[in-house]
Design a protein that fits this description.
The chain is of the alpha+beta class and about 170 residues long. The chain folds into 2 domains: about 80 residues, Roll (Ubiquitin-like (UB roll)), CATH 3.10.20; about 90 residues, Orthogonal Bundle (DNA polymerase, domain 1), CATH 1.10.150. A 5-stranded mixed β-sheet has the order 2-1-5-3-4, covered by helices on one side. Strand 3 and strand 4 form a beta hairpin. Helix 2 crosses helix 3. It is globular. The termini are far apart. The mean pLDDT is about 95. Bound molecules: FE2/S2 (inorganic) cluster (2 copies). The site of one FE2/S2 (inorganic) cluster (FES) has 11 residues, from loops.
Length: about 170
C-alpha cells in the first residue's frame, strides 16, 4: 500500500507517494536519485547509508520512509553549498578527506562524511577519541581507517580556521 509523505531533503520540500515498506535509503536513491547515500549491508551494520535526520546521524536502511513525515533529511549531497560566485563549496570534512587522501574506492566515504559533519556540529574541537567513537560501526572495506581518522582531524582544523575567518 502506498502512503503520502511530506519530507524535506537537502532543504527542498517534497510530497511523495511511497510504498509503506520503502526504506528511507530506497526513497533517497530510487525516488529522489540521490546516489551519494550507499547501500552496503542493508541491515544497519556498515554505516554506508548514514544520513542526517533533523541533524542526527542515522542509518537510512533501517528507517521506513513513511516514518519520516515532516522530518528534515540531509544527505552527503546536501553538505556542500553553492557560493556567491556559483562555485561548489565543499564542507570541511569533504575538503579534508580529499586533501588527506582519505578516499580509496569511496564507497564507505559518504557515511563517514555525514557522521563527521554531525560530530563537528555537536562538538567544536573533537579529539581522536571522539572521532573514533563517532566513526564506530562504520566499515571501510578498503581498510583505510588511519587515513580516515587523520582526514577527520584535518577537518577539525579546517572547521576551526573557517569559523575564525567568519568571525573576523
Ligand atoms: Fe545501512 Fe549498511 S547499508 S548500515
Ligand atoms: Fe573503499 Fe572505504 S574507501 S570501502
Amino acid at each position: 500500500m502506498s502512503m503520502k509523505l511530506n519530507i524535506v531533503v537537502n532543504g527542498r520540500k517534497y510530497t511523495l507517494e511511497v510504498d509503506e515498506e520503502e526504506t528511507l535509503l530506497g526513497l533517497l536513491r530510487n525516488h529522489l536519485h540521490l546516489m551519494g547515500t550507499k547501500e552496503g549491508c542493508g541491515n544497519g551494520e556498515c554505516g554506508a547509508c548514514t544520513v542526517l535526520v533533523d541533524g542526527e546521524p542515522m542509518r537510512s536502511c533501517l528507517i521506513l520512509a513513511v516514518e519520516m513525515e515532516g522530518r528534515k533529511i540531509t544527505t552527503v549531497e546536501g553538505l556542500s553549498r553553492i557560493d556567491s560566485e556559483g562555485k561548489v563549496e565543499l564542507s570541511p570534512v569533504q575538503k579534508a578527506f580529499i586533501e588527506s587522501g582519505a578516499v580509496q574506492c569511496g564507497f564507505c566515504i559518504p557515511g563517514f562524511v555525514v557522521a563527521g559533519e554531525a560530530l563537528l556540529s555537536r562538538k567544536e574541537r573533537p579529539d581522536e577519541r571522539d572521532i573514533i567513537e563517532a566513526f564506530s560501526g562504520h566499515l571501510c572495506r578498503c581498510t583505510g581507517y588511519r587515513a580516515i581518522i587523520d582526514g577527520m582531524k584535518r577537518a577539525v582544523e579546517i572547521s576551526r580556521i573557517e569559523s575564525e575567518i567568519k568571525h573576523c
